[in-house]
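$ run holo --ligand "protoporphyrin IX containing FE" --emit tokens
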Amino acid sequence: MIRITRITHALAALAATLLLSTAQAQDADDSLYRAWGEKAGIQAVMQDFVTRLQADARMAPFFKNANREHLVTQLTEQLCQQAGGPCTYKGVPMKEAHESMDIGRRDFNALVEVLQQSMQAKGIPFAAQNAMLARLAPMHRDIINRP
Ligand code: HEM
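-- output --
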């Protein structure tokens, strides 16, 4: 009887440890999502971002004919997923979405600059701004298609 109780205790302790570590892993995973103010926070930044892209002299030639609502929705899903939030980007893959455009490194950097303006304007903490940029940066391989 004592042995069964011990085993039961050991199993309960193991289950508690597993539950705790899963919860901690989830917390760690979505901390960037929470720092951005979850879906509503990300969407607010993306709305500001698309407005700025269409007004910025360097970016307007690319974005002047963009479907604003569609772009905000797709960007929100994508950044939500990148931040570890409960979203799945189901839009066109990055390479395909940008391959018909003439995008150079200078254009990519200009877009990042405009994104920084939006993150600043919407009060995203500096560390959370940088963490998001670090997650987006590797996409340049699929987006930049000329030197
Ligand atoms: C990390 C950087 C970037 C990300 C995360 C990104 C993301 C996206 C996403 C999610 C879409 C929507 C795809 C769809 O329709 O399903 C899109 C479309 C588009 N992107 Fe990018 N993009 C990036 C960089 C750029 C750059 C550097 C340019 C040009 C300078 C650019 C120009 C465009 C344009 C013009 C569209 C089409 C908009 C429309 O007509 O609806 N993107 N991008």
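-- notes --
The radius of gyration is 21 Å.
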